[in-house]
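If you are new to this repository, start here. Below is one unmodified record pulled from the training split, so you can see the exact layout before writing a loader.
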Amino acid sequence: MKLGYNTNGFGFHRLEDAIAIIAETGYSVVALTLDVHHLNPFEASAAEVNEIARLLHRHKLECVIETGARFLLDPRRKHRPTLIDDEPDTRVHFMHRAAEIAGDLGALALSYWSGARPEQGGHGDDELFRRLAFQADKLEQLARRHGTLAALEPEPGMLVESMADYDRLAALMGYRPGLTLDIGHLQCVEDEPPSVYPCKYRDVLYNLQLDDMRRGAHQHLFFGEGDIDFAAVFAALKQIGYEGPACVELSDASRNAVETARRAKQFLDRSLNGQP
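And here is the target side for that same chain:
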């Protein structure tokens, strides 16, 4: 698999510096979270996007485009609007720009999530899943037009938070949409261990996020601070021959970004080599 690191863990760094440090640390992928300070898709010029493409090429890095910026679309409401809100147009516009940038950067995947249920309520889950099925199908087509793969991430607290929710969506769509698995989220939400799921969804598994977590607590932890058996996870990934991106996501670690990225890479190298 292709190990990477998410730029949301470098929140106090310029994007150019974060990319250089991620490369120097030995990762081969940058998970680029488009944000107010990192290639803002509503402000970035073609020249700026091309410069990031050249920078990635110079450092021999591939990338994944992540769309989970907290306050990019609304400075007062986290992650709003969503694809399932009554007025999703700003989110849809954002996803179109993200797909364009993914195409320009040759991204391996375009990762996204459903969003939480609308704040004002008034809609049952049947209606919300129908909305999401419509939007997810459009995103699948949009991503492919730009030469990448849309990858839906189940996220605690959102409409699609579990793999059962993902299966419900897939049944509505008539096919399984591309998938991002966050290993920590599986530990948080699911009854079975995270190592079970790569095999179950191997045919649509386009993107992985790596972090530790405890059951029932949605907090991204450094490896070893939660309850995940990473030896079992990596054994499962090896069994299915997973060769896609697997990016560390520790968005709360920006205060100590360089050291955290280095320690994470050391942990992953040891784990993949069967060392304690």
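Two things worth knowing about this chain: The CA atoms of residues 13 and 82 lie 27 Å apart. Residues 125-145 form the longest helix (21 residues).
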